[in-house]
Inverse folding.
């Protein structure tokens, strides 16, 4: 299907879309990590993104330490959101270790709750969704 940019048979001969890109200071996740509502349980539809993260980290051993950051929207109590974001970051770390083969010492988890919104004073569902995210940062 893609004669100018060949890719694997599983993708009809087209290159697979990148979902994780290395940039200054971190790894940009071009897709979303999904959790069950009000939970740190990862949804299965996130596994492909997490597997891509692990692949990039495994291919780039020169990146010594990654901080996995969890963020929530401002719905609910701030203290609860802080704990939820921490649990979600820890779930991502656990997946990368257990399923991605990343050495535990390369990863840390930190939850920021609602303290670092991408969209301040978000009101719409779309804006709130942007604030619920996981970020990967290269730790100093």
């Amino acid at each position: 299907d893609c004669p100018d940019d060949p890719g694997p048979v599983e993708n009809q001969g087209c290159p697979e879309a990148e979902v994780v890109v290395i940039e200054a200071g971190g790894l940009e996740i071009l897709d979303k990590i999904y959790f069950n509502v009000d939970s740190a349980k990862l949804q299965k539809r996130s596994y492909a993104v997490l597997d891509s993260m692990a692949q990039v980290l495994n291919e780039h051993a020169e990146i010594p330490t990654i901080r996995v950051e969890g963020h929530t929207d401002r719905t609910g109590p701030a203290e609860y959101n802080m704990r939820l974001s921490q649990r979600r970051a820890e779930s991502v770390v656990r997946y990368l270790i257990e399923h991605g083969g990343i050495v535990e010492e390369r990863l840390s988890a930190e939850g920021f709750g609602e303290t670092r919104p991408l969209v301040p004073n978000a009101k719409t569902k779309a804006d709130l969704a942007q604030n619920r995210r996981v970020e990967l940062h290269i730790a100093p």
Q: What stands out?
A: The two ends are 43 Å apart (CA to CA). The longest helix spans residues 78-98. The CA atoms of residues 57 and 107 lie 10 Å apart.
